[in-house]
Amino acid sequence: MKKEKTNGKKIAVIAGTSEATDLIVHISDRLQITAFVATPYGKTILESTNCTVHVGRLDEKKFHIALSGFDIVVDASHPFAVEVTRNVKTVCEKLHIPYYRIGRPQENYDYDDITYVNSKEEAVHLLRQTTGNILLTTGGNTLFFYQMQIPDFSKRVWARVLDTDASREMTKESKAHMVYAMPPFTVEDTVRLIQQNQIDVIVSKNSGKRGGMHEKITAAKMCKIPVICIQAPQEEYMTITEVIKVLENDCNCLS
Questions:
Q1: How do residues 108-164 score in pLDDT, each as one tens digit?
Q2: CA-to-CA distance for 38 and 139, rounded, in angstroms?
Q3: In this structure, which long-range contacts are made by residues 30-33, counting pairs with CB atoms below 8 Å and at least 24 apart in sequence?
Q4: Which of 60, 106, 170, 189 has an alpha carbon within 20 to 30 A of 97's alpha carbon?
Q5: CB atoms inside a 10 Å sphere around CB 126
Q6: Which tens digits make up the pLDDT trace of 87-123?
Q7: What pTM does this model have?
């Protein structure tokens, strides 16, 4: 039997990760949840959850309007969505709305041929010292940065990005060999991609277990190629369990 919602507080969840979905599933039977996603694909992920979904990319001004009237904001956006987090935090400070950031810990992987860098600029510095084929798994929004920086980009670079209308529109002018596909990707998927295109190095954001990093690392090991791993920006964050505890105790939302 579905539980009645026991609290009238309005909670905004800045979604975009599996952690956001987990949180919404856990608390939406008791709270009024509005999830904010950037794309229609983000909305499809939340279709089976009990929440209202707002679709569209928002800047600081639009977040200020959208978040007015909410009692609490939980930021569960992607660890690399730096601008989104900055805008949401700024708006919450201005509106005096309690703000909680859900994050995921950075992982180190058991592979000798992996190099950790702190930015896409550092990744490019390493890539410019290579001559082989490159597999970018860093998303469509940074693809043109790499295109401007990597010699022989159109010949050397394969880019695996989401197969969505928004992603295709974003990358339609790219000169990379585009691989449009939908996760999750198995080890075999990535091995096949590496072998078919004679990939010599993989570039990935350190998106953790839920972001498919273990499968990428395993595929790289099997194919004996290096990985360049971009670390997420350092920030203070909480786990889902900690946020739920705050909602239960400090904010008295789940009582």
A1: 899 999 999 999 999 999 999 999 999 999 999 999 999 999 999 999 999 999 999
A2: 14
A3: 30/3, 30/5, 30/6, 30/253, 30/254, 31/5, 31/7, 31/247, 31/253, 31/254, 32/5, 32/8
A4: 106
A5: 14
A6: 999 999 999 999 999 988 778 899 999 999 999 999 9
A7: 0.86
